[in-house]
Design a protein that fits this description.
Elements: E1 2-7, E2 10-19, E3 24-31, E4 36-41, H1 44-60, E5 64-65
Antiparallel strand pairs: 1-2, 1-5, 2-3, 3-4
């Protein structure tokens, strides 16, 4: 999924996905200045905790979500997670 946030002229793009080969959840944050941070998580709980903290940090920094997330056809688990 792709999530877009902005604050004035600053933009953040959050791409969330599941890496089936590595069996990891992935969050890729792209900042307005071109920086790109990638974080990987072994469990859905750790991924969810990170997402929640990221959303709170964005709100505290006055970033606003721009529209609904874009659902991508890939980046989903190809098997049920245990």
């Amino acid at each position: 999924m792709i999530w877009l946030f902005d604050r004035g002229q600053e933009h953040i793009r959050l791409h969330t996905a599941y890496d089936n080969d590595a069996k990891e959840f992935v969050a890729i944050v792209t900042w307005s200045d071109g920086r790109r941070d990638q974080t990987r998580f072994d469990t859905v709980a750790a991924f969810g905790d990170w997402l929640h903290a990221f959303e709170i940090a964005l709100e505290e920094d006055r970033f606003r979500q721009q529209g609904p997330p874009t659902v991508l056809p890939d980046g989903w688990p190809d098997k049920p997670l245990n």
